[in-house]
Amino acid sequence: MSPTLQSSRTVSVLALLAVIASAYVAFAEHLGRFIAPDPMAQAWQRLEHDDPAPAQALAQSVLAREPLRADAYRLLAQSAEKAGQRQWAAQLYTQAVAVQPRDLFSRQWLAADALARGDVATAVGHYDRMLLVRPGLAGTIYPLLAQLVEQGAASALLPSLATDPPWRAGFLAHAAASVAHVDALHALFQPLASAAAPLHDGERNVYLDRLQREQRYTEAYLAWAAFLSADGRAVLGNVFDGGFEQPPENGGFGWRIGRVAGARIEQINGEGVGGKQALRVQFSNQRVPFSHVQQLLALASGDYRLDGRVRLDDLRNERGLRWRVACAQGGRQTLVETGRASGTGPWQPFSAAFSVPERDCQAQWLQLVLAARIPAEQRISGQIWYDDLRIVRQRP
Predict the structure, then answer these.
(1) Using an 8 Å Cβ cutoff, are 311 and 346 in contact?
(2) Which 3 state secondary structure label does DSSP give 165?
(3) How confident is the model over 273-322, as pLDDT tens digits?
(4) C-alpha of 153 from chain center
């Protein structure tokens, strides 16, 4: 081998070794980042052992290299709090959530601090963000918010609730069940009737159900009417939507239509229907304990007449269907029952007069029921239609 060729090969080997060495150094530096202890871990250990000065120095050195480290701001904040510098701690916690909005520990501290200073709106803002980040905190935060409502601070919650955050429905249900004084709930629910994102039916109904459970029927009716849309107000009357034109409310003072095996309940169009649709109930020749169409009424004491129209398509049952009006309170005293409907027949009117007593009957249930007395009388087939229900006050 010539000296020139040998020298060339030596240079090549050295160059390759240099590349390998460089790569090894780079890899070692990269690996060292994972193997070397995190300065913040050391800082937290120092702080836990009541050695704040080195802990602060480590945190500040981390921030000099990584200014978006929320944990470094949080350590400095805790150190300041231990030193009695609460205002400086608040600024550091604020900086922590500024660089890391999902920092739940800092938000919790800031929310508690805001409440201590009487700044309820700021506290609610932090709780809002916490619930958005971690919905599982509802069990802790809902009671705090409900306590604010109880204390008369519902207005501080309204800006967040008006935007319909994902946690609104759950919190409103919690508040309706847990806030001791109904009057405090008014300030929470009523303004949301005209919010940018008004209450959904389910959110509204938890409030109305609470009022009804406490037999505050007049308040419940007025609140329910305030939540109605323009279409709903157009069919407002002693019987709401007696023509079955609107979807069922399933709460408040609208139609509540349930489900039961052996019956199919629909609001559809058909021959002789007064508006766009009517109520039709189809039965499939089974035993059906039927009472699944009803509406809560708010009739004042006095004399009334229930009117409506019915159509029968081969409805077979020993006892037939009928409408019943009964008091919602006490033993649910029956005020009137219409004639039992069965068989086949075209649209025809029906009517029944009744009186609402002055006491223990502030609200009433209008309910379509099967007049069966025993299970054997519940077998029913065919279909029945109802339309144009109304209750008219009878003047002396």
Answers:
(1) yes
(2) coil
(3) 998 999 999 999 999 999 999 999 999 999 999 999 999 999 999 899 99
(4) 20
Distance CA 340, CA 329 (A): 25
CATH topology of 39-234 equal to that of 255-393?
A: no
What CA–CA distance (Å, rounded) separates 217 from 152?
Answer: 23
The answer to whether 363 and 328 are in contact (CB under 8 A) is yes
> Which CATH number is 255-393 given?
2.60.120.260
Q: Helix, strand or coil for residue 199?
A: coil
Token representation of residue 36 = 């070397």
Residue 65 pLDDT: 76
Q: What CATH fold (topology level) applies to the domain 39-234?
A: 1.25.40
Tens-digit pLDDT profile for residues 57-73: 666 767 667 777 777 78
CA distance 151 to 353: 48
Pairing mode, strands 263-268 and 302-316: unpaired
For 327-337, what is the mean pLDDT?
Answer: 90
Query: What are the domain boundaries of the chain?
Result: 39-234, 255-393
In contact, 244 and 368? CB cutoff 8 Å: no
Distant-in-sequence, close-in-space partners of 303: CB < 8 Å, separation ≥ 6? 353, 354, 355, 393, 394, 396
- Under 8 Å between Cβ of 281 and 264: yes
